[in-house]
Amino acid sequence: MKSPKVIFGISVLLLVVYIIVLSVQFSSVQEIIPIHYSGEGADGFGSKNFLWFEAGLNFLLLCLFALPIFFPEKMFGKNGDYLESSAETAIKNRQVFLSVLSVLVTVIFCGLSLKEII
Length: 118
Description:
By secondary structure, the chain is mainly alpha-helical. The protein is 67% helix and 12% strand. This is DUF1648 domain-containing protein.
């Protein structure tokens, strides 16, 4: 059951790299940045401190995703009401799904604001 943890580790690594880049470049970021986009471009603006809010929110989501990945026995029941052939397979599938979802969430959170930092 190492693969979900390795995939989840990728999202943690991406967030750590994003926080390091944000820390180094924060002083050079414009004071007002776009925080909302529509079909016509940026239509909502806010303080550059919003970038830290995004990182914090991403961290909280990763903490929520980590619970069933690292503590599956506490998060999933073993009553056998799964569509998969065994409870272990069902739990592994859910862990892989959550770990891939954590990478996608981190890429979206970090990727959307990366152009404002660099």
